[in-house]
Amino acid sequence: MDLASVKSFPDLPIDVARYLLEGAAYEDPRTAKHLTHVSKIVRQWIDPVLHHTIVIKSRLKLEKFHHSIVSRNDPMFFARHVEILLVGDYEEGCLELPPDSACPLASEKESLNVVLSACRGLERLALWLPERNSTLLPEFLGSQGCIRPTHLSVFDITATVPRLDCWPLSLTHLNLDEADIDAEASIPWREIFTGCPRLTHLCLSGAAISHLLSHGRLLAWIKEPLARLPSTLETLVILLNADCLSLARNEHGITRLRSMMDPLIQASDRLVVITRAMDDSYKVVDGVHRFPQDHSVESDWGDGRSVMDTWEFADLCIAERKRERLERGVV
């Protein structure tokens, strides 16, 4: 290993140069890719940082990452360094196909198996491929699986209702994003809470949640998971889409929205309602919180290293609620 090859930092101790380069790569991965060509040692420093978070939204990106895995000499590199993996496009619920349909691609299933097998050291995993739930979840996250994440986000569990042992015991944070409004009552709450004994944070989001709210059925639906909440669960987040509070356009709409939201917010001290609304409509209902900055689901699961994620914000909201109650003398 030729330390003298790091010529950009002739007057810095080697550990300081490494610290600066790793920090720069962490803050700006896109630009940092060019630094891997500076020298072999710089690449050894930066490569793990560049692979800390992997976002795969297209079949072509999946294919490239598949090739990167099978062509690397160190088969354990990805298990050691990939900590966050997002697979799928949140808006589409699938992997985008390349514009050139003639582009040769490996089997999606084959590539997914290679990627998940290699990235077995994950801390956060978002699998936004509902059509693959019934196979990927049991195979890689079940009792015989190789992945033990603490954070997991999946689409449309109601469409598959996986086996009990598909829930990794390591889970502390779970996001269920539901789009199927016809099967909203079939989420296997008992299996989830039993299969995840360490679960402390649960987030419910998606089109089904918005639909239930707009039709005044969200409170009735949420009663089952509220009744089953384990003592370990600290925070239950209801994450509303930006258009969920559109009822607040006039006085009648505001009154109706409050009649639906107030009982929901008061249902549990552990429940937090958060919205991504870009206007001030959320202010018409006390207890609804809005992210302090532009926020996307991807920032929780793909590129959230420098942005407050949903869990952190929800915990802050609960802490603030407790503080306000103590000030008012309410226990």
Give a description of the structure.
- The structure is a single chain.
- This protein has 331 residues and is an alpha/beta fold.
- Helices cover 39% and strands 12% of the residues.
- The chain has 13 helices and 9 strands.
- It has helices at residues 14-27, 29-32, 40-50, 59-71, 77-81, 108-118, 133-141, 189-195, 207-214, 218-228, 251-265, 298-301, 310-327, and strands spanning 53-56, 84-87, 124-127, 151-155, 173-177, 201-205, 235-240, 271-275, 288-290.
- It has a 9-stranded parallel sheet with strand order 1-2-3-4-5-6-7-8-9, with helices on both faces.
- Strand 3 (124-127), helix 7 (133-141) and strand 4 form a beta-alpha-beta unit.
- The longest helix has 18 residues, at 310-327.
- The termini are far apart.
- The model is unreliable at 1-7 (pLDDT under 50).
Task: Please outline the helices and strands.
Elements: H1 14-27, H2 29-32, H3 40-50, E1 53-56, H4 59-71, H5 77-81, E2 84-87, H6 108-118, E3 124-127, H7 133-141, E4 151-155, E5 173-177, H8 189-195, E6 201-205, H9 207-214, H10 218-228, E7 235-240, H11 251-265, E8 271-275, E9 288-290, H12 298-301, H13 310-327
Parallel strand pairs: 1-2, 2-3, 3-4, 4-5, 5-6, 6-7, 7-8, 8-9
Helix pairs in contact: 1-3, 4-6
